[in-house]
Amino acid sequence: MAVDEVVTFPMMGGDGTCSYAHNSQFQRGAVDAAKELVREAIVNKLDVGSYGYDNSYTVRIADLGCSVGPNTFISVQNIIEALELKFQSLSLPVPDFQVFFNDHTENDFNTLFRTLPPRKYYAAGVPGSFHGRLFPKSTLHVVNSFNAMHWISKTPKVNMLEKSLEWSQGSIKCTRFMKGVHVTFQAQFRSDFESILNARAEELVPGGLMVFSLITGPGGIPFADTIQGAIFNFLGSCLWDLAKMGVISEEKAYTFNVPAYYPYVEELESLIQRNGHFAMERMQQLDQPMRHKTFPAQFYLSHLRAALGGLIGKHFGEELLENIFNHINTKEAEILSIHNGKLHKEIEVFVVLKRMSKN
Fold it and tell me: Which of 23, 101, 171, 204 is the most exposed place for a label (fewest CB within 10 A)?
């Protein structure tokens, strides 16, 4: 399948008011909801008995799609505490821990490492896409990823005729609602997720764990009827407003897309089973506490900028970013109607995969 160049889409860096560090409380909810599940997985499922663990051994953990703190630090700390409990319960010496923080090369690693909290592990940064290999063979024991794997590696080329039909109506609508475009993004996600599993299968030791959360679509519900679909539509409408006002070009608005895909749970299960390198130890819906709460409009709008500001700035130009979000921020009523209405909420699942013995 023909694709455009590989894209990078880091979250908003720094520690200012618009940064991901200060606007990722919603994502923090998934980390908190999974804390006990992570502990159970490591204590009950991680194999540690067959590798000669002693005082000189190092357990290596990778957090994929780490962005900037504090969520990645909390997630890693949960793993470290579970590992300590695991070794203590087996009357084994607690080894050294090494943690690799991974994200795109354009991620704000400076802020990440400047804000590292007091810790019981050795920290290192590993820039690069987690859709491919990042580490030597059989060197990792736990791979962790939260709120990241819905991002695909490339923006697929879509049928321009289908987009033109949308534009003929005088507004931008989310083209993901159209079957041909959905299938194109679905194919890219399936290819990417297969690559993720194959890469981690090489990097994990046998008996090692991959634990992650992923936002999935509610079964049988069209993407158009979900909150995320409505947000994409909302964003498209705002961009079309700006194009009509001459703030951005119609061509730029026309070619903008968000390189993300939200699979159904059944689709995810099928991809894991077909891969064949992992035993699926757990897959369950996370009781995400943030999804049960309501927030003011600026909370949602700030989170939108923190997540997509880097992507939007790269596409339209950093010099236009303030103008774009100044307009989006006037749409408080629209964003509240999306989050507080009757649209279907996405389902966040927690998955534990165990690397099977290598043939």
Answer: 171
Predicted TM-score of the model (pTM): 0.92
- Which residues, other chains included, contact 204 with Cβ-Cβ below 8 Å and sequence gap of 6+? 138, 140, 141, 143, 210, 355
Q: What is the DSSP string of 176-236?
A: GGSHHHHHHHHHHHHHHHHHHHHHHHHHEEEEEEEEEEEEEBPTT--GGGBHHHHHHHHHH
**Dihedral angle of Cα 37, 43, 46, 48, to the nearest 10 degrees:** 160
Evaluate whether 309 touches 321 at the Cβ level (below 8 Å): yes
Spatial separation of the C-alpha atoms in residues 261 and 219, rounded to whole Å: 14
Residue 194 CB-density burial (10 A; 0-12 exposed, 13-18 middle, 19+ buried):
middle
* Distance in angstroms (rounded) separating the CA atoms of residues 22 and 52: 42
DSSP secondary structure code for residue 344 in this structure: B
Residue 76, classed as helix, strand or coil, is helix
- CA 311: distance to chain centroid? 14
Mean pLDDT in order along the chain per 10 residues (359 residues): 51 88 91 96 88 72 94 98 95 94 95 96 97 96 96 78 45 52 88 98 97 91 86 91 93 87 94 97 91 89 94 93 95 93 89 88
| Cβ contact 244:74 at 8 Å | no
> Is 112 within 8 Å of 13 (Cβ atoms)?
no
Contact criterion met (CB below 8 Å) for 63 and 75: yes
